[in-house]
Amino acid sequence: MSTPETPTETAPTPEQVRRLPKVSLHDHLDGGLRPSTIVEIAAANGHALPTTDPEELGVWFRDAADSGSLVRYLETFDHTIAVMQDAESLARVATEAVLDLATDGVVYGELRYAPEQHLQRGLSLDEVVVAVEEGMRRGEQLAAQAGTPIRVGTLVTAMRHADRGLEIAELALRHRDAGVVGFDIAGAEIGFPPSNHLAAFDRLHAENFPVTIHAGEAFGLPSIADALHTCGAERIGHGVRIVEDIEFGEGRDRFGMPAATLGRLATWVRDRGIVLELCPSSNVQTGAATSVAEHPITALKDLGFSISVNTDNRLMSGTSLSREFSLLVDEAGWDLADVERATITALSASFLPFPDRLALASDVIRPAYAPA
């Protein structure tokens, strides 16, 4: 007999998707705050907001981000970062983020943020990281007590337009045994190639520390190639514009794959199983895709690319990981097997140690997707 936790129909319902265990790889801490928390902290520190009504503020963030421009999208972070400038607020935001993911059925998540953006009120880089990690661990404890256990790792991010990559890399290494599991660069892509931070990546590789890089969202194939071949990224944040190296034909081949001719970079990414951290709703907002239905994620999945589904910024997109999967089910024809495959792909590409990945897959994820 089936249960609400174990969907048996080909296309799972939104409630079934919410109950299923999921893995989140690309989620910005400063893009997932609760509007009520922003209002409370802003009132305490004197930061002016577009509105002090939490519901209206949530709508404002979504509307402001829904502009089709990555630059305009990034401007919404002025308000979230402004309320993340002291240790107490950072810890609170981190705790709430973990709890929100756990409530959505996420069993492992990687939350990323840029410590250099949280120094306006006198915190040091190390104090920022300590506060966030304390909040993360508190969130894990509260989630376990609520019966929704989750494990969370932190990705320390450097801003690509700044000149602190090596400094932030050293920061990540100092905290690698206290919850920081990887390194990232983020921010405006055009004019700021990943290789500007090559010294940071060389240092991280020398210390056997995992790296993912934002690439192929606002800028195209050269950004992805630079991240992979020059900087040694293990995953690509977004990477949606890899589709520019694919020429699609008509129909499908004898294996059921869409008829397509892949360029050399696309072939490299697919054949080596480089995981793309795709974020459907966010990509539509920033103009990297026209709609969820037409988002390249489905074609890439069908062509054998290693894809994961992510939220990017839950506040700005008014979304959750369950909602992203449900949109793909409703608008792009995904089924339960697609959801499971993307979840296992994300887990396999996570920066968790292999025994922990194996345990999550065997004990939590596979049983939930198995027929009752």
Automatic annotation (TrEMBL):
Enzyme class: hydrolase
Family per record: Belongs to the metallo-dependent hydrolases superfamily. Adenosine and AMP deaminases family. Adenosine deaminase subfamily.
Domain Adenosine deaminase, chain residue ranges per copy: 21-365
Cofactor annotation: Zn(2+)
Protein name: Adenosine deaminase
Catalytic center residues: 217
Catalyzed reactions: 2'-deoxyadenosine + H2O + H(+) = 2'-deoxyinosine + NH4(+); adenosine + H2O + H(+) = inosine + NH4(+)
InterPro entries associated with the record: A_deaminase, A_deaminase_dom, Ado/ade_deaminase, Metal_Hydrolase
Enzyme Commission identifier(s): 3.5.4.4
Binding positions for substrate per the UniProt entry: 28, 30, 187
Binding residues for Zn(2+): 26, 28, 214, 312
Biological role stated in the UniProt entry: Catalyzes the hydrolytic deamination of adenosine and 2-deoxyadenosine.
Biological-process GO terms, alphabetical: adenosine catabolic process; hypoxanthine salvage; inosine biosynthetic process; nucleotide metabolic process; purine ribonucleoside monophosphate biosynthetic process
Organism: Kineococcus radiotolerans (strain ATCC BAA-149 / DSM 14245 / SRS30216)
Any GO CC annotation of this UniProt entry: cytosol
The gene coding this protein: add
NCBIfam families tied to this protein: aden_deam (TIGR01430), PRK09358.1-2 (NF006847)
SUPFAM superfamilies in alphabetical order: Metallo-dependent hydrolases
This protein's UniProt keywords: Hydrolase, Metal-binding, Nucleotide metabolism, Zinc
Cofactor binding annotation: Binds 1 zinc ion per subunit.
One Pfam match: A_deaminase
Residues marked Important for catalytic activity (site): 238
Gene Ontology MF terms in the entry: 2'-deoxyadenosine deaminase activity; adenosine deaminase activity; zinc ion binding
